[in-house]
Amino acid sequence: MASPYVRIFDTSLRDGEQAPGASMTSAEKLEVARALARLGVDVIEAGFPAASPDDLAAVQAISAEIGQAAIEGRPQSEPPIICGLARCTRNDIQAAWEGVKGARRPRIHTFLATSDIHLQHKLRMSRTEVVARATEMVAFARSLCPDVEFSPEDAGRSDPLFLYEVLAAVIQAGATTLNIPDTVGYTLPDEYGALIAGILAHTPGAGDVIISTHCHDDLGLAVANTVAGLRAGARQAEVTINGIGERAGNASLEEVVMALRTRGEKLGLQTGLDARQLCRVSKLVSRSTSYPVPPNKAIVGANAFAHESGIHQDGMIKNATTYEIMRPEDVGATQTTLVLGKHSGRNAFSKRLAELGYPLEGDALAKAFAEFKKLADRKKSVHDADLVALSSDERAPAPELWHLEALQVTCGTTGLPTATVRLRGPDGQTHVHAAVGTGPVDASYKAIGAVVQLPVTLLEFGISAVTEGIDALAEASVRVRHEGERSSHGHGADSDIVVAAAKAYIASLNHVLARSSHAPARHPQATGD
Ligand code: KIV
Ligand code: ZN
Fold this sequence. Notes:
Layout: E1 7-10, H1 26-39, E2 43-47, H2 53-65, E3 81-87, H3 90-100, E4 106-113, H4 116-123, H5 127-144, E5 148-153, H6 160-173, E6 177-182, H7 189-202, E7 210-215, H8 222-231, E8 236-239, H9 253-262, H10 264-267, H11 278-289, E9 306-307, H12 310-318, E10 337-338, H13 346-355, H14 362-378, H15 384-391, E11 403-410, E12 418-424, E13 430-436, H16 440-452, E14 457-465, E15 474-481, E16 488-494, H17 497-515, H18 524-527
Parallel strand pairs: 1-2, 1-8, 2-3, 3-4, 4-5, 5-6, 6-7, 7-8, 9-10
Antiparallel strand pairs: 11-12, 12-13, 14-15, 15-16
Helix pairs in contact: 1-2, 1-11, 2-3, 3-5, 5-6, 6-7, 7-8, 8-9, 14-15, 16-17
Zinc ion is lined by residues 15, 181, 183, 214, 216, 246.
């Protein structure tokens, strides 16, 4: 028998957008809605049309484009339901309808608070008035739209007996989905689960409608509460990408979906999502809202599949299931990364070196590993170029055939990025050249290239801060290749990142020259011989 289906209701464009500073333009909302549809969400809450003409226009645009046609790449053949939020007023409900009526599957979502705290301090309404208003407005919404969702706001702190009464009344009035918000993220998982179970058991008609979860993360329990609600019988989860939303945010879509999938045997629930798109959509929402994804964020954070400690790396090399409960490719993450740092072990170090084409064994490996540990103590992360430098003949610093004497760059929003370099060459003479580029580093590299006249391909370029703070010392590391030869690396450090980058490039060119026949004879004055 197939597992019960959980509808994924994404509210990134409504509750998510309510996060301070997370507002999106209409074009950005449309792009996010497109990505959500492709991901396979069942319902997109596209906005709060009564909030502003822009909100209304965005919901209309999403209804017309995303809510109408079949979407390429979407797991389901039918378009998602497009939903608009409305307070329990005629104006709001009418505006929500104007927003969603262009969709093939429109939904009006209306809400009214039911907790005594909200009734007394915010609404200044009696319980009787709340039941009457909710019933009347759900009936009005239903007269416009066949799909109506009702939310008793602050349900998590509402008297359950009053909740059953309100919910029974709105079912009678035509509500098809009952959403149960833990608006202030107050409940604990067992309480929220019991709330959903109580509603299903005691509300007349609850078995004929869909019960939905909507959990906020004020205590960091939004996902746990959502899962508890689903286990208790809810069949829709209201969530947002990256967990964005009011205050501490909403339950994160990617975490809920992957909990259901990874613990499928235990939970026995399924969704219709293509989880391989999760990382891509997460990046899009992060970019559109300017809300960065923390590196340690579950499922989509940069470190979600990264391992640094030696013990973990050793386990991962032997078998990925030792420290990974999901496969990175199943959520669209590129791959597991073994980050080489001061906690890494010899096994991961030698494996990475072998991948880079430098298999080391015995004493050579021991020596390189000892040097790697010293370097890792000084640097936050060790790049491939550092590893190669540690393990090859490149460890010996190349003679400084070319030396950077001066670098001047102009860059910014106006004018062309231009660099002027003064290099002292192997002939002991100074050489000056200026070049324009796409940015200050590119311009500097072009100017240096014009002086040194050694055609190379830039394979790797990295900048990292060696020390902390805005005045940190920057370290650039560069890897280049000259016409089919082995690659050469270079490092450069300076408090100015462009100077550090230029020094690294010159060092890499010096390596190429030192090891090959292109090395020009050094001028006595330049070497001090
Ligand atoms: O958290 C909440 O109560 C809401 C409702 C409007 C559903 O977002
Ligand atoms: Zn909410």
